[in-house]
Records
---
Amino acid sequence: MTARIIDGKAFAAVLLESVAEHVSHLKQTQGITPGLAVVLVGEDPASQVYVRSKGQRTVEVGMHSYEYRLPADTLEAELLALIEQLNLDPSVNGILVQLPLPQHLDEALVINAIDPSKDVDGFHISNAGLLATGQRAMVPCTPLGCLMMLREYCGNLAGLHAVVIGRSNIVGKPMAQLLLNESCTVTVAHSRTRNLPDFVNGADIVVAAVGRPLFVKGEWLKTGATVIDVGINRIEQGDGTTRLVGDVDYDAAKDIAGAITPVPGGVGPMTIACLLANTVAACCRVHF
Ligand code: GUN
């Protein structure tokens, strides 16, 4: 069996187009332009790349992008003061504080200082609680993008067995909640799970978000399973160059899975598209 390739880039392009149409409609009919504020503390190279591309996409769909780059030694009180200023600013509809934060900053305190209605990452404890209780919430962007692709490729998800590998607040836990809300039977596994291949072998859907390169082996999969690979890992090649790989051994998995996301070009592009969709939704909730 050769898996269908789930083209996240093409998916994201369609979603971005729809976001751009919404933005243009808001401008023309209401004179409103949604705004997204992104806060980066420190110089983490990967975060700098993510923040730059978030800013670019925001402008491309016609929204206002506000970027705040703060030094690594920023005091917690200074960061909290900026968040309060953004909470009160009516031109800012979405606030994203790029994670990870430098060690001296309390991540939970900072995230929970964001107005939940502007929490386009869906990380605030109120949004996490709403999602966990099956209520309308701002949903974290990566799991939301994964769910959209799963719905497209699997149709109705009810009754399917999903194994989510990874238990982070950003991906694993909200992904499991979303799949439960779709009436999947959900197993949350992680790097310490015993007999992981046995769990994976029973899964109709595998979402790998464990952050370890090529961790999930092709032979673990059930024939025809749908595989969503959230991992983005840079590995050294024998010739001194580096290569981006996911958490799944793609080359082996593609001969067994029914459908699979590539890395790069799978989940990644959907995350930003969902962030912008969340920002438009946040803007509409304020105004309508
Ligand atoms: N760091 C890695 N992924 C994310 C994300 O989705 N949002 C934020 N704020 N930080 C991240």
Note: The longest helix spans residues 8-30.
---
Amino acid sequence: MYPINNLQTAVDLSGNKTYFLDPCSSFSNVRNDSKETFIKHKLEQIQETMISFSAALNICLKEVNELIHTEDVPLDQALGRVLREDIYSPFDLPPFSKSVMDGYAVNKQDLANLSDQHPVNLKICGHIRAGSSVIESLKHGCAMRIMTGAPIPPGADAVIKIEDTVSNGDHVQILRKTGENDFIIPKGQDIQQGQCVISKGTVSGPAELGMLSGLGQMQVSVSQIPKVAIISTGDELVSSKDKREPHQIYDINGYALLGMLQKSGALPKYLGIIKDNEHDLIQAMRLLDNYHIVLISGGVSIGDYDMVQEALLTTGIRKLFWKVRIKPGKPIFVGKRNEQFIFGLPGNPVSSLVNFILFVRPVIDKLIGKKNIGIPTGQATLLNDVYLSPGRRKFLRGSLQVDDGNVGVYIHELQQSGIYSTMLQSNALVEVPGSIQSLQAGKKVKIYDLTSLL
Ligand code: AMP
Ligand code: MG
């Protein structure tokens, strides 16, 4: 006899096929299976072992076989996109030696006798503004008036800033020496011709856009944006647009996942709510071929109405794994249909978001060819004592606090996966191995930095 919590009964599969079912349990979702098959399947589900976090993540990443296609976009559409080409500089930057000050271009040999008591008098024999093209050589005994960004004339090797000079029309008195700083950026000091400036796999931020434009590259090859479908499942769910009856709840996961996807460089499409009904989900899955990834939340556990896994398997989806030894987020189901990933995320909003962070995000990152895969991790000093139940690897919601260069993390008290509000206060997850039962303040812990995601 096997105890089955969710059926609130016991089943004997040893031969006489007697079983006792929860009288409230409904089989309306079950395909044409007999009750025995259904129960046997449930038993298999319950007994199936959980896999470790690292094994699950490895499976996900290994299953991303090919990168998404590329497309060429103009620079004004390239922000946040993953570059798929190495960018080499076609010329030196700056392309000519230039002044970093408004002042006078001089030859330092002419200032050899300069001291605080004896200024040097030079003839002003030119005026160079930013953008000047024809530059005469500087002759000894002369200085040229020069503006910031203007090319240094041949023969000059320093710029004296305007504050250190006095001009009297034709001549300028140089009052002070240049010191260490010649106030010239030499040609190619920033970037040299042929240098690889940005490597492929970089997410182009404002700095990259500026560099591409500075190199005269107005179009760039980037990854296409992956399309991701979002479906929320549950008989208790109603759309936030509709009237809610007292026994119903509004959908949290749909829009929370939509936000995470937008912040992860994907194009989400929220397709709404499906009731706990296998048939409807199977119908929906038939229409989702064009998405790179499908996220379905709810119905992946072992309750009587948790039909998502069975429905997915019916549609020919290949199961990669179900259930991971983590808390929150244990019941995650991951499968594939050709190159499409299907994630069955737990309905619990905290669990589904943690699963997104741990599994969906790395898959998206790899699919779009990012150099750095997954949410950035690091170390922080724990700011409070924490007591934990042993068992699964934990991902605890916390807040990062930077104090005088030291990164601390405070772990929030309410860690039950049903408590969604702590998600609003959090900007980090703290990863704690399953064997650890307590952590004292001051200890270094591994954190996932969610500041770019939440
Ligand atoms: P399930 O994974 O379907 O067993 O759902 C677990 C818990 O999450 C239940 O309390 C559900 O009511 C709740 N839940 C499921 N889906 C959502 C959703 N989209 N938004 C908010 N809560 C949900
Ligand atoms: Mg449900």
Note: The chain is about 20% helix and 30% strand.
